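Sample pair:
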Amino acid sequence: MTRVDARGLRCPWPALRAARALREGAPIEILADDPAAARELAALAGAQGLDFKVIYDNRYHIGPVTS
């Protein structure tokens, strides 16, 4: 799993960094403290057909859809 540290960055930068990391094909964990990050990251995951989860405040997971 790849970890993306986007703390201190304003949107759309956390989503852009996440999109770049997703090119590797592995699930990613994103650290982002911008209030808009969850919405942007969820949209990114949905657009790519991936699952988005909030692990806890400011920590998110994007990866393959699980049943």
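Residues 19 and 48 are 9 Å apart (CA to CA).
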